[in-house]
Amino acid sequence: MTISTIEEKYLNRISGLLPFFSKQLNAYRLQCPYCQLGSKGHKGRPMTASRCKGFFYSNGNALNYKCHRCGIGKQFHNFLEDHFSSTFLEYVAEREALGLTGKGTNAPSLSNAAQRVAGRLAGPSAEVDGGMESERQETAGRGDGDAGGSNQNQQISAPTQPLITKLPRLTPQQQAGCSARLAHKVKQHKQRRHCDPAAQYLQD
User: Does residue 66 carry a pLDDT above 70?
Assistant: First the structure.
């Protein structure tokens, strides 16, 4: 059994899970799982078979993947590894049983493939744990910062005693002088209003 035969076999197995998968003249066409996600295209129009830009094509004795929109290119086993981990391990196991893996071939050995899949599976959980730990530290830091900020706000908001300058009391003579000047100003104002009839229309 040749490599292309094995890859055709596994491509047919996953074809039902690939949106808009169809066989063309010398290739297989599908919706690109790297850049054409969802039911609509990048311009918001509904996805159709004619807008799908992913292709599997024969390259020598193997299948390669190429997207004519995002430009990504993958060998068949890399495509399986990215999207179908369990099928990828079955594919590598079948090829290893035929001596078609490892150095000098286009597929890793089964042990390397298993390590890579295990790393992919462990990666998200490790990122989640790390993210949760960093979030806890950040929350604790914000708590300390809030406490420091509240203390600072308390210090800033504490009322301070204004400086008050007390003026000396006026003596009776000073009070009498102020009253006399005020009475004189009032008298002058009344006289001007009496002499000038138009003054009543002017603002004081």
Answer: yes
